[in-house]
Amino acid sequence: MSRAKTVSVENFRARVEELSGENVFACYQCGMCSAGCPLTDQMDRLPSQVIRDLQQDDITLLESNAMWVCASCLACEVRCPKGVDLAKLMEALRQLHLRKELDHVSIDEMSPQEIAKLPQIALVASFRKKTG
Amino acid sequence: MNTIPYFPGCSLKDTAASFESSAQFVMEKLGLQLQELERWNCCGTVSSLTTDDLMHHLASVRNLVRVQDLEQTELVALCSMCYNTLSRTAQRINADAEERDKINQFMDRESDYQGAVVVRHLLQVLRDRIGWQALEQATPHSLEGLNVACYYGCTLLRPKEAAIDNVEKPTIMSEAMAAAGAMPVHFPFAGECCGTYQVVDRRDLSIERSFRVIQSAAREGANVIATACPLCQHNLKEAQRELAGASELADIEIVYFTELLAAAMGMDSQKLPEGLSARMQQVAEAQTG
Predict the structure, then answer these.
(1) What is the ipTM metric for this complex?
(2) Chain B residues in contact with A73 (beta carbon < 8 A)
(3) Domain A4-104 class?
(4) pLDDT digits (tens, 9 = 90+) for B31-64
(5) Chain A residues inside the 8 Å CB shell of B160
(6) Rounded to the nearest 5°, which phi and psi values hold at B284?
(7) Alpha carbon of A80: minimum distance to chain B alpha carbons (Å)
């Protein structure tokens, strides 16, 4: 499957801000998002570091797995004292890959048994979040 | 009998069929029949979060149009993911005439959406339209002896505009359980994520998260976990099957909240999950013996 590393984006931060509608400089790095995120132990960058990288326009962020581990549970969104919606930033980062046809899951890699066992909402949600 | 327009969603017609059948049983007992929308379609399952994603809300809007066609303004959902997606779309499109106009221009066969439909979760209908006292009166087979940890997960609580109760300290499901005679168990993982759709390609991750939810409920003395989402239910059951082994965690019943209410209203034990029927039997014996 094609992976993140081939994506290049001009005006990276501006593009992410445009897609998400969020201002990354509203974040003052308190770390509340990282403290409450249930999946940080699976991420190669913490949620607060994702925003820090965006503030610094660090395009290597696109190689991070954080956006794919994020499950849009919105624990960060409801707790951010500055009202930054990190889930929207994560979605924008995913979209930068997906809009270049770089899917992150493929139904071809799943067995019919696996597919039959999963609730439909799992499959539809996964494909909505991880395919273009 | 009074009716309320109802959106089932795909999982309730398949892996979560007992969620629907138990809810229908409960609502009939309460005198408010769930009226399934005709020609409903997928809600979209997750809310699109980018600024240029308006068209991705179309699927939800089509369902809102079906409610409008019935000359109704309220739609009830059971599946918490459907509830969340429909509710967020309704709030966004109801509040923005320009976006509503764009969406309407995109739909040919449907009547224009007027922006008046409100989406509710069944728990809100139970609280606000039925009331806990009426629920208590309708549940003669008390759930006494069941220590129920009410698991909300993400989509009933977040984002704030879609929250059916307090975002950090929800009590709505516990209140329903208490009305039916159960002992609600407070546990800190009630609103934590189960790993959701990550189960598709990161099963390890969702199993691990879900098992923590079960461990947390067990530590606080729960013998039942009540859920409101087919995906939470699936992930928790898988985690229990895979990681509980022969420990006491394997004995915790993981059931839909509607199945508990249906049990309390005397639903045929054959139609209830086996473990729940057995526990109800124990409860009944303890009460008579």
Answers:
(1) 0.94
(2) 154, 158, 192-193, 196
(3) mainly alpha
(4) 999 999 999 999 999 999 999 999 999 999 999 9
(5) 78
(6) -65, -40
(7) 12
